[in-house]
Write a structure and sequence with these properties.
Shape: globular
Number of strands: 5
Distance between the termini: 85 Å
Strand content: 5-15%
Structural class: alpha/beta
Radius of gyration: 21 Å
Largest sheet: 5 strands, parallel
């Protein structure tokens, strides 16, 4: 009887631990609800092309490397004058970025102004933190729709290749195990690198929901993946990497501009 009593207590303890774990995971990956976004009528502007750059540390570092000047110089060569605003937050997940954009009490940013284009860097922290492809797609789609309602054309940067598994190698075993369990819960696999899964699901979602060229999607592998000299560490690129990336982004912007001339 005593052995049975201890066994039941042990089972109860395990169940409580599992329930607590599920509770914290569900809280971690909870989805934001769509905030009300007013439709904005396109306001006739001068000849200055306005570009917003938003996102995680890739947006933040873009400003650190003065990429606004690089973008401006290329556009000036094409006889286009520009105004560029960058807002990046290190460690931001897609949910963080959406809440930042739609926070009516946040007067520290003006990314909601009438920009022509908005470049979006998001997804690396969703991926590395094992938040799940559903979490990434849900909040990224909210960001895209928020911009579209304001007549701003989104330029979504595909989650770029980075040395994800090398970054995990720096963590202690228990932390790696926790990330694998998160992946099992959110992506139904035990893998640490779900980059292709996130990308594939995002492309399917975009093909099903965004048509008529209302967004620009920038694929990054041909630009960055096979150029380790572009990386400063496992997760970030250097100035040369940004210049290569923006050269391709600006090609797409210039093509898009010509469509409407």
């Amino acid at each position: 009887m005593k052995l049975k009593y201890h066994f039941l207590h042990f089972v109860l303890f395990i169940i409580i631990i599992l329930l607590m774990g599920i509770y914290h995971i569900e809280k971690r990956i909870s989805l934001a609800t769509r905030n009300k976004t007013l439709y904005y009528q396109k306001i006739p502007k001068d000849t200055i092309l306005s570009i917003g750059i938003i996102g995680d540390s890739w947006a933040y570092n873009s400003h650190t490397y003065n990429m606004e000047l690089f973008i401006d110089s290329i556009l000036t060569q094409n006889k286009i004058y520009s105004h560029i605003v960058t807002r990046g937050k290190k460690g931001a997940k897609s949910k963080d970025l959406y809440q930042f954009l739609t926070d009516s009490n946040n007067h520290q940013h003006n990314i909601n102004n009438q920009f022509d284009y908005c470049i979006i860097y998001i997804g690396i922290n969703d991926l590395h933190g094992q938040y799940g492809a559903t979490y990434y797609i849900h909040h990224t789609s909210l960001i895209i729709n928020h911009l579209l309602k304001r007549n701003i054309k989104p330029i979504l940067i595909e989650i770029p290749y980075f040395y994800n598994e090398s970054q995990y190698d720096k963590y202690p075993f228990w932390k790696i195990f926790c990330y694998r369990m998160l992946s099992l819960y959110t992506n139904r696999n035990f893998d640490l690198d779900n980059l292709n899964l996130y990308r594939r699901k995002m492309e399917i979602y975009m093909n099903d929901n965004f048509i008529n060229n209302n967004i620009i999607y920038i694929k990054t592998d041909t630009i960055l993946k096979h150029n380790p000299s572009f990386y400063t560490d496992d997760m970030h690129i250097n100035e040369l990497g940004y210049k290569a990336l923006y050269t391709n982004i600006l090609k797409e912007i210039l093509i898009d501009i010509k469509k409407y001339k």
